[in-house]
Every structure is written in C-alpha cells, then in structure tokens.
Hints:
The chain is mainly alpha-helical.
Amino acid sequence: MIRVMLCFIILAISVLAETELEQLTQKCDNNNSSACQDIALLYWNGKSVEKDMQKYMEYYTKACDLRVSFCDHIAEIYWDGKCGIPKDMIKAVEYYKRYCNSKYEDLETCQKVGDAYAKGDGVPKDYKIALEYYNKACKHDRYGGICLRAQILDAILDGDGDSCTISVLEKSCNIRRNSTACSLLAGMYWKGKGLSEDFIPSEKAPKDLDKAHEYFVKACAIEKNVLDCHYVNTTLEEKKALEANATTNQADRNSTANGYNDAR
Length: 264
C-alpha cells in the first residue's frame, strides 16, 4: 500500500512539473521574459527537467533579448567562461554593451566594455570607444579609479596617439594643455617608471626630478589641482635637498683632497 502511494505521489509531481514547464514555455513563446528566465533556471537546477546548460543559455538569452536587465548575467558567463560555457569575449562585450547602453547603465558593465576596447580584447582596439564607456562608468564611480582611466585616454587622444608614450603625453600637455597629461608625465619622471595602470601599457620614463617638477608646475597652472600643486613644492624641496647634498659632498671631496695635499 505504501509503495502504491509513493508511486502515485511521484507520478503526481512529475505531471505537475510537466504542466509547469508547458505553461512557462507557452508564456515564453508569447515573449514573457520572466517565464523564459524561469525555464532557464529549471534547466540550471535540473528541477523537473534534466540539467542542461545549453538549454539554460538558450532560454536566458531569449530573456535578455526580451528584457535588457537580464543581459549582464549572459555577458558575465561569456566573459569568464562559466558553467561549462566557453569564454567568448565578442559575445560578452555585445551583451555588456546592451546593458550599459540601457537605463540599467552601471559602473561594472560599462567599465568592462571600456577595458575590452582599451586592450583590444575580443574587439578592435579603439580608445575613442573605450573613452565613451569609461565616461559612462565614471558617472557611477564613487572613488575615481574609472574616471582616471577616462582622463588618461583623453590625454592620449589629445596627443593624437594610439598608445601611452612620452611624446604623445608631451604633445597633449604642451600643445593641448591637458592637465592630466602633464600630471602623468610628472609622476612618470618623478618615479622613473611608466603608468601603474594595468588597463593600458605605457612607455617607461627615465627618473628626472627637474622634468617632474616642470610638469607638476604646468599641471598646477592649468587645473589648479590640489595634489599637483602640492607636488610642485614637494619636488622643489627634493631638488633643493639633492643640490645641498651634492654641495656638501663636493665640499667633503675638496677637503679630503686638500688634506691629502697638505700631508704630502
């Protein structure tokens, strides 16, 4: 008797599951985006149907086609190559662009599109398009990191460049009076390094405190940025300290030489 009851319960659950899937499929076929997502989740969980990631992607993609708010999830799967789905940067960028260009625009999705175009990852390298999406992301950036990326690309484009070289930044700073370019050059010469940003490769500058001070002065004069103006004084003090140290060393050398000659 118990076995008969169990069989009846299992059969009833199976019938209900099939009915649920049929109803959702009918709604999805009638362009109900939520129903398409629900079917996708059934295939994800293997609930009432056999787990099937291809079916999951098929129905979630349809949900995205009907409602753009679902597109960031599809993009993430293609971006990272998750859930047994091969990494596909072309598709990832396509779906992130849909999301970013909608009313759901946010920092992460717009930044990823910008990164892809800045690096030429899955799409042709294009700083103008990258800048467009970094500017979108910048509107949602509380800490300024993405806004800095936009400023760097703007500085490069002002120098008519397609890479971050010293000559491009010098043109941007000296001719176009781009304060970011001046500030970047100052920092590069101060530390004797290239940019620390990983989203774009840059030429390494030789360590040159005089040039660092010169470019901080220019950046400060153009934009009156507090940090740039502060570094004007910082680099000036470093220059004075180096000059004083050099003078002291020279005096010591002269004293040593005189002492040696007296001893002779």
